[in-house]
């Protein structure tokens, strides 16, 4: 399955920083599907302890989105001695499915080094970093969210009222049909009773 250009940046970063490591990954048939995509889709929860995970995301949330790619590449680069010493590709893949022994600060240090020396297409970086990161001190003002919720709530209320109105009209029509049917049945029974009564009278007075 082809990876997006953004995820492929991880491979480029690893290759630029350590061609030897990339050659080992290629020869072991360990691809982005193993050393990049699972890390990012799990938000690094599989390989970091709870405390290290919180530390990592303090930095990831305060940096441009491209820093996520740098952190992912840095994780693999910090595993270089272990990867080069591995005897099978399975041993390498296991490293990306269990909690790591790597100090998170070492990974962050390497990630910042990669960020400073990052040589990626400018257009791709602009697209990645178009999202404004959180401010260094404090949080942004989320003033648009309540308005959106109010609008959404109003729209839902209007839809609900329209649905209720339609249901009421439908129920009223159903009740009318039932009453009309009962009225017809009642009249039919009365006619039948009158016919029987007339027949009895005719039989009584018949000479």
UniProtKB/TrEMBL annotation:
Native source organism of the sequence: Hirondellea gigas
Full protein name: TBC1 domain family member 31-like
Entry-linked InterPro entries: Rab-GAP_TBC_sf
Domain of life the protein comes from: Eukaryota
